[in-house]
Amino acid sequence: MKLYVIPGTCAVVPHTALEWTDADYDLEILDHDSVKSEEYLRINPQGVVPSIVDGETIVTQNIATQAYIDATYPDADIFGKNESPADQAQIMHWLGFLNADLHKAFAPLFGPDGFIEDESAQEKLKAKAKENIAHLLRLPNEQLGKRDYLTGTKSTADIYLYVTLTWAKKFDIDMSDYKNLDDFVKRIEADDGLTAVIEQQGLEKIGSL
């Protein structure tokens, strides 16, 4: 199995999941130019990460790569201890929220010119995006006031949340009221799998918010 990533992106999530499996895998680290190469576009026509190539099988999209890893290595429990339909719904709820709501909310910060050309209007757009992200982050902050991890046991949803928190810190989003998120960062950064991924991708731990 080969995983394609760009450091610091949401591809940190399936990368950490593979570390949790203790399986042998190959890692291909790309940049924002190489994902647009002809070679990579044959794997993922959207020119984004993550992607998995496993023999004749190609899997793209973040949640799909996680699902493939979970199905291939079920004993690794990358989705946490799902012992009931309600548990399974919880992990899908948080992955859906993180992927479709929170992750998407960062788009105006990463590429404001893709939304509007006027630079002064871009600043207003980015300010509004920061407000929206801070508003969305109140939900996992509340959840982490009740338990150490989003679903009660450590899962890829926690890694995905961590990735979005690194982005939030990068863009100076005010999270000073979110003590539970700050405590969570310290807890999740102690994970051996995530630590290995941070080292392999040449990243640094953020320590706190």
Sum this structure up briefly.
This protein is an alpha+beta fold and 209 residues long. It is built from 9 helices and 4 strands, in the order βαβαββααααααα.
Question: What percent strand?
Answer: 5-15%
- The tally of beta strands, per DSSP, is 4
CATH overall fold name of the largest domain? Glutathione S-transferase Yfyf (Class Pi), Chain A, domain 2
What is the count of DSSP helices, taking H or I runs of 4+ residues? 9
Uncertain residue segments: none
Principal-axes geometry comes out as globular
- Backbone structural class: alpha+beta
Structure description:
This protein is an alpha+beta fold. The protein has two domains: about 1-75, Glutaredoxin (3-Layer(aba) Sandwich); about 85-190, Glutathione S-transferase Yfyf (Class Pi), Chain A, domain 2, CATH 1.20.1050.10. The chain has nine helices and four strands; from the N terminus they run βαβαββααααααα. It has helices at about 10-20, 40-45, 60-70, 85-105, 105-110, 120-145, 155-170, 180-190, 190-200, and strands spanning about 1-5, 25-30, 50-55, 55-60. Strands 2-1-3-4 form a four-stranded mixed sheet, covered by helices on one side. Strand 1 (about 1-5), helix 1 (about 10-20) and strand 2 form a beta-alpha-beta unit. Helix 1 (about 10-20) packs across helix 9 (about 190-200). The longest helix is centred in the middle third of the chain and has 25 residues, at about 120-145. The protein is globular, with a radius of gyration of 17 Å. It starts with a strand and ends in a 9-residue tail after the last helix.
